[in-house]
Design goal:
Leucine-rich repeat, LRR (right-handed beta-alpha superhelix); elongated; LRR_dom_sf; leucine-rich repeat; LRR_R13L4/SHOC2-like; Leu-rich_rpt_typical-subtyp; repeat
Length: about 375
């Protein structure tokens, strides 16, 4: 299939060169390869009309060689409702970026684009992918966000060089087991789907640096999450989690952890071993007490615990000397410990909708004279 497409591309270049000897050679090659010139030109007519538009059809002769040899297509919001099968002639294509179009299906011929490195079709009407997607052996980035996908073909596991996979805002209830064979993945974004479980094989993604599973229906996280030793960003917000596995303490490079809007009433001690964490988001849970383990996170710059049931903060809060922003809105806090004065880098403190007396507000302001405070 690829050899024939290459022959067709070469013949087209000869026919459109404008030189008599090349045209003759092109016709001879077509005859020897049993390639129907009429069919070939009709295919190219379709490709040019798709690429140039009907109103520019007169430009085909001048532009065709450039079109066939093009390496990048980036046309967002261009009114495309399809990708024609004739795209198979664009064998040099390395990037195909058509976001914000009305494309609802991919041609099987997409698999002939062996040089493709980046495929971006976000904000489309795609509801399925052909198995030929697995033929894109050089693919590094696949962006199918804000589409209507209900499943991913198992052939995605053939994309051994894939570094970025963006599938958020779809209708996925499960993922093929083969997806965990994409062991070079660095970014995996799966938010706003309908996933309710994660298999242990997620731990095979040893190179993963960013994992977004927010806005799903997860009730638990597998122990193998601890295998993701390169992970720097983990978003588990808006799920149905009430606990985390102790193995999360292995994520020594984790810088950002979001557990917002789950069902946590407490946090495990191991969270205090996330030595690189800079941003911890715990808002919209049911925490009744401040997890003392947090006081060990000496790299923390932002701590968000709004909309919980906190009544007090421990004296150890003063250990978070790198903290710049502290969000405690909508809790049951009445007083803050004097040790909060040790937060010399604190720039923003939100204590809104807490039962804090006027005298306590005065004291807090005196303890943090350089901080912007909201009551």
């Amino acid at each position: 299939m690829e050899t024939q497409s290459t022959d067709q591309e070469n013949i087209l270049r000869l026919l459109l060169s404008g030189q008599e000897k090349n045209i003759v050679l092109g016709l001879q090659l077509a005859e020897s390869q049993r390639i129907d010139i009429a069919d070939l030109l009709q295919d190219i007519d379709i490709l040019c009309e798709w690429w140039l538009g009907k109103d520019k059809i007169n430009e085909i002769t001048d532009k065709l060689v450039q079109i066939v040899g093009i390496e990048e297509i980036a046309k967002g919001n261009a009114g495309f409702d399809r990708i024609p099968p004739q795209i198979k002639y664009m064998l040099n294509l390395k990037e195909l970026s058509l976001p914000y179009n009305q494309i609802n299906t991919l041609p099987l011929e997409i698999g002939t684009l062996k040089k493709l490195i980046r495929l971006s079709l976000g904000h489309s009407k795609l509801s399925s992918l052909p198995s030929e997607i697995g033929c894109l052996a050089q693919l590094r980035e696949l962006n199918l966000t804000y589409s209507q996908l209900h499943f991913i073909p198992p052939e995605i596991g053939h994309l051994k060089k894939l570094l970025k996979l963006f599938l958020y805002e779809n209708h996925l209830t499960t993922l093929p087991s083969e997806i965990w064979q994409c062991s070079e993945l660095k970014e995996l974004l799966l938010s706003y789907n309908k996933l309710n479980t994660l298999p242990p094989e997620i731990g095979n993604l040893f190179q993963l640096e960013s994992l977004d599973l927010s806005h799903n229906q997860l009730q638990s996280i597998p122990l193998t999450i601890g295998n993701l030793s390169q992970l720097q960003r983990l978003d588990l917000s808006n799920n149905q989690l009430y606990s985390l596995p102790a193995e999360i303490s292995n994520l020594k490079k984790l810088k950002r952890l979001s557990l917002r809007q789950n069902q946590f009433v407490s946090l495990l001690r191991e969270i205090g071993q996330l030595e690189s964490i800079e941003e911890l988001i715990l808002g919209d849970n049911q925490l009744c007490s401040f997890p003392q383990e947090i006081s060990k996170l000496n790299q923390l710059t932002q701590l968000i615990i709004y909309h919980n049931q906190l009544r007090t903060l421990p004296e150890e809060i003063g250990n978070l000397t790198q903290l710049r922003r502290l969000h405690l809105k909508n809790n049951q806090i009445e007083v803050l410990p004097e040790e909060i004065s040790r937060l010399i880098n604190l720039e923003y403190l939100d204590l809104g909708k807490n039962p804090i007396s006027d005298s306590e507000k005065v004291k807090i302001k005196s303890l943090l004279p350089n901080c912007e405070i909201y009551f």
